[in-house]
Backbone:
C-alpha cells in the first residue's frame, strides 16, 4: 500500500505544480477572490494550497488591476496567506513598479512579522524612494512594531536606527531564527 500511496502523492504534487505555473488557472483563482464570499474562500484556500509560487501572479494583477479587481481585496488575500509567502513579498520589494512594491509592503505590514522589519527600513527612510512607498513602509513598520500612527508618521528614523542596531546585535549573537523549509532559506528576487 505504501508504494501506491507514494505514487499517488507524486501525481498529485505534479498536478499541483503544473497548476501553480498555469497563468490561466491562477487568473481564475484571482478572479474568484473578487466573487461571492464562498468563491473568495475557495479561491484563497486553493492559492494557499498551491503555495508561495502563486504570489508573483497576484502581484502582477496589482501592477495593473482589471476594472473589476479591487486591489485591497488582493492585498488582504496576500495577508491571509500569511508568513509562508513573506520571502516572495520581500522579492516584490525589488520591483520597479510602484504599485507592486506598495502592495507587497501593505501585505507585509498586515502579516505583521517582526522578521520583516529590516526589509522595510530602506523603503521607509531612503529619501530617494517615492513618497507613497516611504509612507506605506512607515505605516507597515508602525503596525509591526506596535507604534501608534495617529500623530504623524509613526516610526521615526531614530527608532528605525535603534531597531536596526538591535537586529544587527541579535544576528551577530546568532539569536535570529531565519525562516527555513527543510533546512533551506528561500530568497526571492524580482525581475
Residues:
Amino acid at each position: 500500500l505504501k508504494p501506491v500511496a507514494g505514487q499517488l502523492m507524486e501525481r498529485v504534487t505534479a498536478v499541483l505544480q503544473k497548476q501553480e505555473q498555469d497563468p490561466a488557472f491562477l487568473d481564475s483563482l484571482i478572479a474568484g477572490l473578487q466573487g461571492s464570499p464562498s468563491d473568495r474562500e475557495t479561491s484563497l484556500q486553493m492559492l494557499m494550497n498551491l503555495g508561495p509560487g502563486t504570489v508573483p501572479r497576484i502581484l502582477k494583477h496589482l501592477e495593473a488591476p482589471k476594472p473589476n479587481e479591487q486591489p485591497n481585496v488582493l492585498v488582504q488575500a496576500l495577508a491571509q496567506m500569511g508568513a509562508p509567502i513573506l520571502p516572495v513579498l520581500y522579492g516584490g520589494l525589488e520591483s520597479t513598479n510602484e504599485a507592486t512594491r506598495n502592495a507587497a509592503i501593505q501585505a507585509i505590514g498586515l502579516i505583521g512579522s517582526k522578521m520583516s522589519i529590516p526589509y522595510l527600513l530602506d523603503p521607509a527612510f531612503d529619501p530617494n524612494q517615492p513618497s507613497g512607498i516611504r509612507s506605506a513602509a512607515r505605516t507597515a513598520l508602525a503596525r509591526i512594531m506596535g507604534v501608534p500612527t495617529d500623530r504623524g508618521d509613526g516610526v521615526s528614523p531614530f527608532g528605525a536606527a535603534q531597531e536596526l542596531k538591535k537586529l544587527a546585535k541579535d544576528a551577530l549573537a546568532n539569536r535570529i531564527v531565519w525562516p527555513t523549509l527543510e533546512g533551506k532559506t528561500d530568497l526571492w528576487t524580482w525581475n
